Amino acid sequence: MADTTQFELVSPERLLVSEPVEMVVVPGTEGDFGVLPGHAPLISTLRPGVITIYENRNPKEAIFVAGGFAEVTQERCTVLAEEAVRVAEADRTTVETRVREARAALEAVSEAEERRAAQRRVDVAEALMAAIDRGKAAL
User: Fold this and answer.
1) Which of 57, 79, 119, 134 has the fewest CB atoms within 10 Å, i.e. the most exposed one?
2) Residue range 28-65, pLDDT digits in tens
3) Residues 52 and 106 in one domain
4) DSSP of 65-122, one letter per residue?
5) pTM across the whole model
6) Do 55 and 123 have their domain in common?
């Protein structure tokens, strides 16, 4: 068995990561899951949260994803993310503005479908803020 598994993270804008990793932890809809070399195949939806890449058994990088899909095989883990931001590069002031604007937009809508979409934007913005608060200290 190999010591690494290939990890790829793709957002609509670009390929963020394509490298062999020791382990990656992914925020699945049903809970976080770790992917090691030789992992059983699976496909999972993702919730807003942080993907953590490990090197030498320690967290190396944290990347926030707003949601998406992950496909795992014995040789690789591929994540197709709706949005992806390296936590170390996230600007707190910009994210605070995003949270305020998302909350204001939620307050301004009344139709059920629009409220669900607005609530999703609030949830993603708040999850990104939480990732900034936790992630930068954890690495």
Assistant:
1) 57
2) 999 999 999 999 999 999 999 999 999 999 999 999 99
3) no
4) E-SEEEEE-SSEEEEEESSEEEGGG--HHHHHHHHHHHHHHHHH--SHHHHHHHHHHH
5) 0.90
6) no
